[in-house]
Structures are given as structure tokens and as C-alpha cells.
Amino acid sequence: MDYYVSDRVKNLKPSAIREIFKYAADPSVVSLSAGNPAPEAFPAKAVSEISARILSEEPTAALQYGVTEGYAPLRKAVWDRLSSKYGIGTENDDILITSGAQQVMDLLTKSTVNEGDTVICEAPSFIGSLNTFRSYNAHLCGIPLEEDGMDIAALEEALQTEKNVRFIYIISNFQNPSGVTTSLEKRKAIYELAKRYGTLILEDDPYGELRISGESIPSIKSIDKDGIVVYAGSFSKVLSPGMRLGYAIAPKQVLQKMIVCKQGEDVHSVCWSQMVAARFMTEYDFEGHLAMLREIYRKKAAFCMELLDKYLVPAGITYHKIEGGLFIWCRLPENAGISMTDFCREAVLRKVCVVPGNAFLTDENEQSSSFRINFSTPTDEQLEKGIKILGELAGEVL
Amino acid sequence: MDYYVSDRVKNLKPSAIREIFKYAADPSVVSLSAGNPAPEAFPAKAVSEISARILSEEPTAALQYGVTEGYAPLRKAVWDRLSSKYGIGTENDDILITSGAQQVMDLLTKSTVNEGDTVICEAPSFIGSLNTFRSYNAHLCGIPLEEDGMDIAALEEALQTEKNVRFIYIISNFQNPSGVTTSLEKRKAIYELAKRYGTLILEDDPYGELRISGESIPSIKSIDKDGIVVYAGSFSKVLSPGMRLGYAIAPKQVLQKMIVCKQGEDVHSVCWSQMVAARFMTEYDFEGHLAMLREIYRKKAAFCMELLDKYLVPAGITYHKIEGGLFIWCRLPENAGISMTDFCREAVLRKVCVVPGNAFLTDENEQSSSFRINFSTPTDEQLEKGIKILGELAGEVL
User: Fold this and answer.
1) Number of Cβ pairs < 8 A linking chain A and chain B
2) Do A7-43+288-397 and A65-283 have matching folds?
3) What CATH number was assigned to the domain covering residues A65-283?
4) DSSP H/E element including A184
């Protein structure tokens, strides 16, 4: 039987990253392609203790239906922390708890983007978000990413020429995949442009707490006096991705429509996850936990960069030194003359899996001279083994 | 600022049921408007035990990212049970774990329905599903519900005249809100019509395990030899709604597109919920638990029908005797001359909350002479108090 497929989904392919995960599932392949937190970063003991108390003290609250907006103590804990620590949220804003930050991208697109309308994003950008935008038949317009954020001239040109731009999507800190952090100057410039051209900004900040060096930069949301920024936060990198918890802090009018969409998607997020996160934030040393995470990733990132210097740089591959996040962006020489897909395919045959840069472009068929390495998931041994193989491969083909 | 709202969401209102919940939150109001399982129906002790074991034995699996298709042991447990017990699922089908059954409605609509395409549903039908269909700008076509299911002649006429019918939505057992169970004869007729007119059937079966009397009827999915039925199941009524777990058993080609859409919505469902449900189904007496639930609801339903006989029937209100589910559908006399919305508003002012029948129609502004009572959430005392008030009100206005 020929099944009818909607226009919006017809050309949507499973995420290339998740397809590459299939290779990564082969235990003989070293996977540097995922984005999983390090297992030692999970506060398993605390979650276990909190969970036991919740299920003994208030089992009905954990097991019964909840409200779409989210568990009130968690909404308050997140709001209070972001408001006092980062100046995020005004009296015109409110907070919605979502099933992972991915759902923020989904709900904002669903509630503000008609099929064919434009979403402006960084090029490259996070493939998961791009696929969400695609799943509503949004027209994607990629703005080249420089060392300090989007090319502002290209952004302004896009705002002038693209039709029905509904929002600008930006991962402001330690961008996935490039590792780039947008400078304060560019954050302000992007904000002013969005304001001038009457469009929203979707600021996605899953890695903001994972800064391992340098000075923290105010979020775009913290300078939002006009109610044009939707801020997406996540518990996936600071607590647990398996709990599927994220949140949106956004103008109330925008949030109201997102809530209606969430009702139709999953009614509300899992009560247990929300209750565990609320207690972890308020009854445990959350800031101490974050400091511990930064220490884990600081060591892993430093070790990874050492390996890159040792094995890849001599072969002509350069990389963007990172100040946080979970990824490092490596670049082949301009004149390498090999397609990134071919390079990554050959790497997988040699038992190391990385993601080709073109997977992160608005058009996957465009050429890219970069690939993405994740250092949070592999062990030190796996990291060394994998990068050594990449170095050998690079030595042969470059 | 004027925020841009997408066409699909522009006219979408928060669910009337959930709006009515706001009244129900007032502790002095007796709420007969919800659809929550009885708190005593939750296996809190078992969940607590299983959760403790999971978090001590395999914390990383519970806290790390999972796969979009769902936790393999849960997929197997559900598949094996439905296959062996109800003959559901062929070699052309597969199973997807979702974040509540609501997400099945969402994913199927997203992947098969273009804006303006038609979804045929029962009239009345579950407001949550109708709103999901509306959120993709589907055109809804309601088929009047008779005592034994849809009016088959009206269904055939709709299939002949409506454009681009993508699926027929049916709650086959103890329909919400009407309590109607579709007869085997009509299930077969609906299946044959769907086949003849080349459309899918979305069979939603959240209450199937809650039969309290009469003989169980084979699901439409169990007679599906042509790969045209998507079966939606739920853990909300048989384990816990707060865990947000449902599933789709559907032709592989259809499921593949739904999986791609799920990636973009929430990546995967919460690991903890899936692991708890899998162990509860395989290591505990799941069938015994279901028998216990049926006993709870059998008593509650019988008591509710006694109260209706005592307080509402003398005032001229009739109701549909139920064989399962959580709801009873009450009907005012045809010549009552009072709008259902007015009746329910007056009831809330007298401190009892029920849902007006028009909330369940494809056009909420149509007239309805019915309202829905839920008997699973209130205590016996609340039920008696609420129904007595409704009886007094009916005595005055009818």
C-alpha cells in the first residue's frame, strides 16, 4: 500500500547524526559522534534519594496528571535562579516546562511559523533544531558563522530580503557544532536587528552552564526589554537527558500559544522528572554540582585538545579552541580535495565515528570542510584511540 | 507588541475541559469534569520498589539519552502482550513508545495530514484529540454516534464527499465522552469502508482494559490484514498518567514517518517511565493489577449509576449505561429549552462541575443536550453531593 505522507514531512529524513549512531552502536567503533553527557556527570545518588522520598511522601502527585505549564515548584526554582543569577525574565515573561529543550523549538515553530515562512539560523547549526523547523515546512536561511558569531551584514541582508521571517535561531554559548560563542557586541547587534525588522529571537542555551574558561557573557534574553526573545533552557546537560526536561522563558503572549500546542502534543511533561529536578535544585547543592560538571568537562576538553594538537594538527587539520560545551569543530585544509562525507565514511570503516560538517547545514548537500568531535561521551582511552585513527587517515588523504 | 501567530494555531483555544479545570481547582467545587484515574488505582508501592531498583542497578540507562523508538524491553512487553492476548500486530507492523497516547494523535496527524485535509471523527469525540487535529489545521468532519457506534451511512457519505480524508478517528471502547462501545459489526463495516476509500483508521483505545461488564469485542486493529489501522494505546489509565506513556502499533512505513516527527518534538520519551512500565509489566502481576482496577471502577460506576437513577432520572435526565471506561453521558430531555453551556455554568455556580456536550463537537458552538460526568476522580461523598446538586438544578430548570 502507498501511504499518504504530508508535505511537511515528505522530504524529512531521519537525522544524519542519529543515523550515524547506528555505526556508533557497534562496540568496536569508537564513537566521537554523539552528544551525550559523561556518565560520571549524572548525580545518580541524589536522584535516587530524591526519587525515593517523592514516591513515598507524595506518590499521587508523581503519578497523577499534572498541568501543562509545568510543576509549580520547578517553574519557580528555575525562574528564581535565572532571574537572580542572570537577569533573565521580566514581568512580561513567564516560564513553561517542556519535554526537553527540543520541544521549545517545536512549540515556537508550530505556533508562529506558517509553511514556507522563514527561520534564520546560524550556518552550521544544531541538526535537531533544523529538522524541527523543517518538520513544519519552514524555509531555512543560514547565516555564515564567524569566530564571534553570525556575520551581521549577512544577517541584515537576510532580514531585508527573506519573506516572513518569524525568528532568528541562535545558540549563543559554545554553539553546537562549531563551539563558537557569540560576542556581547554581536548579541546586541542581533537584538537590535531583530527589533528593527520585527522578528523574534529564539536563544537556545543548553551549554551555558558548561563554561570551562573565559568570562561569561550576558544572554540576549537578559537584554530583552522589548519582549522579542524566547529563551530555551535544558536540564539535559546539567542533570539528565533521559529525564527529558527543558523550559522556555518567553513573553506571556507567545508562551500562551505554545502552551496550547503542548496540550495537543503531550499534555504535560513527566511529573517525576519535574519533581526530581525541583528538589535537586532547591534541596541539594546545585551550584556545587555544576562546578563539578565544569571540572569534568574542563579535563576532558583539555585532554581532547592535547590529542588534536598531537595527532591532527601535524596532518594539517585545524580546530576552534573552546571555552565550554561538549564539541570541537575540526577543519580540513581548504585545498584538501576530499568530500567531508567521504572522509567520515572512511573514518567509520576504520572504526571511528565523527559527524561531517555538511550534516549541520541548511542544505546537507552543500560542501563542508569540517567535522565535529564530541569529547564528553568517550573515555580517555577511546578518545586517544579515535583521534589517533583520524590522524592516520588525515596523514594518508591530505 | 503584536506577536505573529501561525494560521494553524490562530483559532485554537485552550481545551474547554482544561479551562473548566480552573473551576474544579476551587476546593469548594465538586469536580465531575476531569478524567483522572482514581488515586487508589495507582500501584504506588510497586512503582517505588521498581524505581529504587532501577536507580541503583542501572542509573546510567535511566538518566542518559535513549532511542526515539522507545526502550526495547517495554516495546517487547507491550507487543508480546497485545499480540498474544488480543491478536494485535502483524509482521508488517511495529511499535513506537510515545509521551502519552496524545502524542500518537499528534504524530499521525503531523505525518499524514496537510492543512485543510480531512479527519473524520465521531461526534461527539475526545476534545484533546480534536484539538490536536485542529492544531495542524485539519478539517474535522463529525459522524453522529449511535448506541453501537458511528452512523455507517453517514460515514460512507462523508468518505464519498469529503476531500482528502487522511484517517478516521475512533475510540472503539467506552468512548470518551459518550461511553459508547462500537459493535463488532460496525467495526467491520468501518474497516471495510476505510479500505474501500483508501484511508487509514486511527483506533484510540485508552479504556479497553477497563471493561466492567459484558463481553470484550475484538479491536479493529486485530482484524487489520491490509495495514490500514494505527492503534493507539495508553498507560495513563492502567498505570499512571503522570508517567506520560503511550504507544502506537502501526504499519512500519507509517511508523517510520511518525518516528522522524517524534525526533523533532521530544527526541524520546522519559527513560525512567519506560523502564518502570517494562518491569511492572514483566516482573509484577500486571493482569492482577488490571483486575483490581476493574473492581475499583466497577464499584464506582455502579454507585454513580445508582445516584443518577435516584437524583437525575426523576428530573427527566437519561443516561447511557456503561460497560467500562471512566465517563457517563447524561442527556436532558429534547424539549428542555436550555443551552448546555448555560446549564453547566449554573451547575458550577452551585459548586458542581461537569463538561457540556458541545465541548466535544467539531464545532463547539453547535447545540448539545448532553453533559459528561466522570466518576473515577471524585470520592463517593463528592459524587453523591455533586449529583444531588445536579438533580436539584434539573428539577428547577427542566
Assistant:
1) 252
2) no
3) 3.40.640.10
4) helix A184-196
Bond preceding residue A59 cis, omega within 30 of 0:
no
The answer to whether the CB atoms of A132 and B265 lie below 8 A apart is yes
Q: Can you give the residue ranges of every domain in chain A?
A: 7-43+288-397, 65-283
Give chain A's largest Cα–Cα span: 64
Q: Do B42 and A64 form a contact (C-beta atoms < 8 A)?
A: yes
Separation in Å, CA of A269 to nearest CA in chain B: 7
Lowest-confidence pick of A203-207, B6-10, B324-328: B6-10
Q: Cβ separation of A270 and B243 shorter than 8 Å? A: yes
Instruction: Note whether ipTM > 0.90 here.
Output: yes
User: Which A-chain residues 92-111 have CB contacts (< 8 A) with chain B?
Assistant: 99-100, 102-103, 105-106, 110-111
- The shortest C-alpha distance from B65 to chain A (Å) reads 5
Question: Is B246 near chain A, with CB under 8 Å?
Answer: no
| A170-201: pLDDT as tens digits | 999 999 999 999 999 999 999 999 999 999 99
| B contact residues 1-40, partner A, Cβ 8 Å cutoff | 1, 3-9, 12-15, 18, 34, 36-37, 39
Q: B60-283 has which CATH code?
A: 3.40.640.10
Cell of A86: 542572570
| DSSP string for B197-249 | TT-EEEEE-SSGGGB-SS-----TGGG--SS-EEEEEESTTTT-GGG--EEEE
Q: Does A68 touch chain B (CB under 8 A)?
A: yes
B100: left (phi over 0), alpha (psi -120 to 50) or beta: left
Q: Are A33 and A330 in contact (CB under 8 A)?
A: no
Is B263 in Cβ contact with A15 (below 8 Å)? yes
> Taking the domain A7-43+288-397, which CATH number applies?
3.90.1150.10
CB nearest B39 (choices: A9, A64, A128)? A64
